[in-house]
Amino acid sequence: MQKMPKKYYAFFTLPTIIAFIVAFFIPFLLGIYLTFNTFTTVTNAKWAGVSNYVRAFTENNYFLNATIFTVKFALVSVVLINVFAFGLALLLTRKMRGENGFRTVFFMPNLIGGIVLGYIWLLIINGILINFGVDITYSAKYGFWGLVVVANWQMVGYMMIIYIAGILAIPPELMEAAKIDGANSWQTLKSITIPLVMPAITICTFLTLANSFKLFDQNLSLTAGAPGRASAMLALDIYNTFYGRVGFEGVGQAKAMVFTIFVALIVLLQLRFSRTRELES
What we know:
Elements: H1 9-34, E1 37-38, E2 46-47, H2 51-58, H3 62-91, H4 99-107, H5 114-129, H6 140-168, H7 172-180, H8 185-196, H9 198-214, H10 217-222, H11 234-244, H12 249-280
Antiparallel strand pairs: 1-2
């Protein structure tokens, strides 16, 4: 295959590089700068040092509570979403009747916007809880499990498609050899399927972990942080801080920067761990 001359590299890569610098890199640097300022608009920013970071952690417990709530939600959601998605993928790769239709049905919730999805499930969950004289905002526990249900319903189908692709990529000869050697279903799953699907597991874990930490739309429409911001996740808490109180824009920006670093570290650790498991497999 003929290689593209190096003189054309800049022609094809320059537009992307310029878009990245203008749309991401410069705003990111400006965002870091604004965390050290008090401001209501970018043009009237005044230097405030690290006071925004101090206020983010000492002004009230909202940020800490949102962090704990988000971490708990992420742990539960990542496990449940991947278990359900992998189970469905195994089921829908057994050449069952109507499997393509089932794949479509399970994937469809992922096409619905988060705000719409939240309001739909708000009606469903409140319709059930009203029989017990409460609603989803009665306790943060109701909001927590409501968000878990919504996240699973939306994301399981998407992760299922990735797992199906990974399972279908397994050479059929390996499965036939395992059957000839007398391996049962559990032994085949443990020794062949899971090790060979580890790249898909890495991708799905990364996506579910990142999406769980960044969840905003569903949280806003389902509970809006009620009661008393006890069910607010990190993204919603940052939004409420930035737009909810005049003069707290810098504090909200500081929270956003802490949130970015926190999520980046979690995701990098997860990727490193998953890659290690891939190599071992």
